[in-house]
Each structure stands twice: as C-alpha cells, then as structure tokens.
Write a structure and sequence with these properties.
The chain is an alpha+beta fold. The strands form 3 sheets. Strands 1, 2, 3, 4, 5, 6 and 7 form a 7-stranded mixed β-sheet that branches. The chain is elongated and about 70 Å long.
Length: about 290
C-alpha cells in the first residue's frame, strides 16, 4: 500500500501573488495592467503582462493585489481592443505559458472584473452599488445591502484501487460530455448549499460513476478561471471502497469511465497547469515510493 500523495507546493500560501483591494494609492506607470475584454485578457504581443503606461491615461483601474511586490490593476474594456497593444487571450491559453502566480493573477482579474460588470445594481432596491473600501465587495447606498464577491466551490477526486497481483495500483479516469471531451480527467462537480466538501465528493462520485469511496484525504486547491468567475477547485484523494466494483457512468455528465494502471496512463490527460493534473502526477509519484 502506498502513502497518499501530498498536495502541490502551489496549493500552500501564495508566493509571488497576493490578492488585495487597496485603493489608497493611484496606479504607477510601471505597475502591472490586466485589461479584460469579455472573457479574455489583453496581454503584450509576447504574452507578457502589460503595464499601466501601456493603456490610456483616463483608464478606470481596479486594484487586484501584488505580484512579487508590484501592484497589479485590472480594467474592464468597454470598447474594442483595436489600437491597443498586444492581443486578447483566454485564460487557458495564458495559463499554459506563464508561471503559476501569473496565471492566478490573470484568473483573479477575470473573476473580479466579470463580477463587477454583473453586480452593478442592488438586487433588493435597484440602486447603483458603490465599492466597499479595502474589500472586493460592494454596498447599496440606499438600503445598505452588502454584496461581497461570491466564490463557487467545486471538488475533484483522484480515486485509486489495488491493481491485479504483481501490477501497479489503478486510477479512475473519466471523459466528460462537455468541455474538452477528448481528455481523461477526474470525477468533479460543484458543491451544493449546505454541503461539506467531503460530502460533495461522496455525492458526485456516487452520481457520476456509482462507486462508494473511503479514506478521503484533502490534497490542495486552485482558483479555476475556465469554469467561470470565482470558481475554486478543492482536490481530494480516495480509495475505492469495493476494489472489485466497476464504474457505471451517468450518461449525462460523463461519456465513459475506466480504471488505468498508474504505470500505463493515457496520453490525453489534463493540462500541466491544472490541479487535476497535479493530483494525477502526485498519485503516480506516491505509488513509486
């Protein structure tokens, strides 16, 4: 029996990136700039982050935090990006090329600017919301409604079982009906209101592949900009409660599910910047100890 995989170092306290909402100072020309246009980010032609000086002087900036001590600012481009430097890119394209702290900052820019665009008016009395100083939150000046930026928690789990005698342990991988359908990924799903992360794992695994699991262990987490603003993925490892049980896909969210030997995983795995891949790689590493 192998030890459970430990979480990724990037899942611990943030190193280069620290979120923030400090409006007490104005942006400097050399500060980092993350313009958002729709569901994409504007970067330099070389893929690097822009600077405040690259955008017009009258740009309306929103504080995002700091990257390696340098303040970072976001802005929602309401006009076409024609004439502005660089190119518009989706988060997945950017995250595949830049270091992890840069990808996390880019994801925060998308989340914060999308949330601000979709939470302009009070849902109780329809007044225009105002920014709450020092917070990623808004408040209604008329009725006092407090509107923080909400996070949507989701779970994913690497489920293993013993392999045949003399063979490596096996990992359950699934193919989803939507999204990148050609990838072999992990069982995942959103947490329901009133549900713990652990309960969500048991429910999602039961619903999607019909398997009971045990020895659930927390692995790590990652903000995930692909699934929408404010999504936070929490990763777990688990063992199949019945090592002889075979998965039965729900036919709605999944198209297939298979056990793979940890020494014979398919090539079509999630991208290297995803917690799904971190979980898979860590599981393989733990089995080799």
């Amino acid at each position: 029996m192998t030890d459970p995989p430990s979480g990724p170092t990037s899942a611990g306290p943030p190193g280069g990136f620290l979120p923030g909402a400090d409006r007490s100072r104005l942006p400097d020309p050399g500060d980092l700039a993350l313009p958002v246009t729709g569901a994409k980010l504007l970067t330099g032609a070389d893929g690097q982050l822009l600077r405040v000086a690259d955008l017009p002087a009258d740009t309306d900036w929103v504080p995002l935090g700091t990257l390696d001590g340098v303040p970072a600012w976001g802005t929602d481009l309401t006009t076409a990006v024609d004439g502005l430097p660089g190119r518009a890119r989706g988060w997945a394209s950017l995250a595949a090329e830049v270091p992890e702290p840069h990808a996390t900052l880019a994801g925060r820019a998308l989340a914060v600017l999308t949330w601000r665009r979709t939470h302009r008016w009070c849902g109780a009395c329809r007044a225009e919301l105002t920014d709450q100083p020092g917070e990623t939150a808004r408040r209604c000046p008329d009725c006092g409604l407090y509107v923080p930026m909400q996070l949507s928690a989701a779970v994913l789990v690497a489920i293993t079982r013993p392999g045949p005698p003399g063979h490596a342990d096996e990992l359950l991988l699934v193919r989803h009906a939507t999204g990148p359908t050609g990838l072999w990924a992990l069982v995942a799903g959103f947490v329901e209101a009133g549900e713990t992360l652990e309960a969500a794992v048991h429910r999602e695994v039961g619903e999607e592949v019909g398997l009971p699991v045990e020895r659930l262990a927390y692995f790590g987490s990652q903000p995930w900009a692909i699934s929408g603003p404010g999504v936070l993925l929490a990763g777990f490892t688990a063992r199949a409660a019945d090592p002889r049980a075979e998965p039965v896909v729900d036919g709605r969210e999944l198209t297939s599910a298979r056990w793979f030997g940890l020494d014979a995983l398919p090539a079509q795995l999630p991208p290297a910047y995803s917690i799904s891949r971190w979980l898979i790689d860590a599981t393989v590493t733990a089995a080799r100890r």
